[in-house]
Amino acid sequence: MIxxxxxxxxxxxxxPQHPFAAPAAGGSPADPGAYASHRPSEDDxxxxxxxxxxxxxxxxAVIALAVAxxxxxxxxxxxxxxxxxxxxxxxxxxxxxxxEGEEAIGADSVFVLLAIGFGLLSAGVVFFFRRRGGxxxxxxxxxxxxxxxxxxxxxxxxxxxxxxxxxxxxxxxPGVPFDSPLRLGAKGALLAWPITxxxxxxxxxxxxxxxDPEPTARVVPDWSGHHQQNPPQPx
Length: 235
Description:
Layout: H1 34-37, H2 53-69, H3 71-81, E1 86-89, E2 94-96, H4 103-129, H5 135-159, H6 165-172, E3 178-179, H7 192-208
Antiparallel strand pairs: 1-2, 1-3
Helix pairs in contact: 2-5, 3-4, 3-5, 4-5, 4-7, 5-7
């Protein structure tokens, strides 16, 4: 009688694996199971993948402060370049020397033009150092522009002729022309700087800022065999 053959080491023979069965965990990357066991996580929560909002807020605060302080230069230029309204006085009251003069409108126009220039300049400088842009950066430019325009307005009036028209008229004497205080008639001119800087920043960001690459979908091969179709049978 011949003894039945048994596998080596008294181990039962391995059963053939079904071609569509799930692969064992820890398979090699060449196996189909490697896509499931070695696929990286979409959101691993590492600090490298999280935006540093605190750093962006700090930088935005510094930018807003720097833009606001630069309003002092705008105030000096406005007091220097703006036309002044000439006045003249007699023994009783003070009058406009030129009743049809446009010096008051000219002062507002000079302020608006200077504010637009400062808005473009501030947006260009900020974009040169921070090309990636962002909402905090736009808000910083807007806030800094408003504060800078207010500072320029107040400083320009302070650097201009005195506010005490009566004392000034008594000082120069009757019939002698003198300049009126520098005033900003249209308060809406204070918005020229922030609006210009915001629009310029958004335009520069849209045209020249580096854009994030579009995420590519991860291709996972289909090993289930459902995509295979039965070949047509010959007639």
